[in-house]
Design goal:
This protein has 239 residues and is α+β, with helices and mostly antiparallel strands. It contains 6 helices and 10 strands, in the order ββαβββααββαββαβα. It folds into 2 domains: 7-81, Ubiquitin-like (UB roll), CATH 3.10.20; 87-238, Alpha-Beta Plaits, CATH 3.30.70. The protein has helices spanning 25-31, 83-99, 114-121, 157-166, 201-205, 227-238; strands spanning 7-12, 15-20, 55-58, 64-66, 77-79, 138-139, 145-148, 171-174, 181-184, 211-213.
């Protein structure tokens, strides 16, 4: 016999809300129309807390917490846009732009990029961090798709959707820190992969222009992610 799910009451900014004990602060905030940015979290995939843009402040805690993995607690007070949160959120976003080569004017996803859209929403007109300008490769060996490491923000959406939804686990992460890279199989060219099904789900969930489809113009580079919640529900129902 399963135990009943308890309901927790908490406050987010100036709003009193209630939530199931298994919900995260990010989930309950969105249910109540409170915006918290994120580039790694997407409905239908497991939470990873990779981008750290969903950081929030919790009263009584000395550190900031990623809302996508922060479980609700009774009586907790959360602040999603305090001066401290805004400062660190802006810093993280600038680090993303400076770590790789995000040049929106020549990117295939210009106008259809979650990273670019978030920068516009946060009114980021320039980057104060020094650019690293790494010389990264572009893998165009696949007959349909392109991987551009210059645009990757290491959100690992491609890794999770390929593993959790498609079941192929073609993608993974190699290296640490600024040297980390997403890889195909054992760091093979995409076109040589023995596990890639060619479904394109990884391209659809990519928040930037790191993964794109050949022969598709920038005006058509709109992501189609409706399959994620449906497939996740079907997967859970089969367990």
């Amino acid at each position: 016999m399963t135990s009943p799910v308890r309901v927790k009451t908490l406050r987010i900014n100036d709003l009193d809300v209630s939530a199931r004990e298994d919900e995260t602060v990010l989930e309950i905030a969105r249910e109540n129309g409170i915006w918290i940015p994120s580039l790694c979290e997407i409905e239908g995939l497991s939470a990873l807390s990779a981008c750290r843009l969903c950081l929030v402040e919790v009263k009584g805690s000395p550190r900031l917490h990623p809302a996508c993995v922060l479980k609700v607690e009774e009586g907790m007070e959360v602040f999603t846009n305090s001066e401290r949160v805004a400062k660190y959120r802006r810093m993280i976003l600038e680090l993303m732009f400076s770590e790789r080569n995000h040049i929106c004017s020549v990117c295939v996803s210009n106008g259809h990029c979650d990273l670019q859209a978030l920068a516009q929403m946060l009114d980021m007109t320039h980057v104060e961090m020094p650019y690293r300008n790494p010389a990264l490769s572009v893998d165009a060996s696949h007959q349909r798709f392109i991987l551009d490491h210059n645009r990757c923000i290491l959100c690992q959406r491609c890794v999770r959707v390929c593993d959790e939804i498609e079941g192929a686990h073609t993608w993974d992460l190699m290296g640490r820190g600024i040297n980390a890279r997403v890889i195909i199989d054992l760091a093979e060219p995409w076109g040589a992969s023995q596990t890639c099904t060619g479904c394109g789900k990884c391209v659809q969930v990519c928040p930037t222009g790191a993964l794109s489809e050949k022969g598709v113009s920038s005006g058509e580079m709109i992501k189609k992610r409706q399959f994620l919640p449906y497939l996740t529900t079907m997967r859970e129902a089969r367990r």
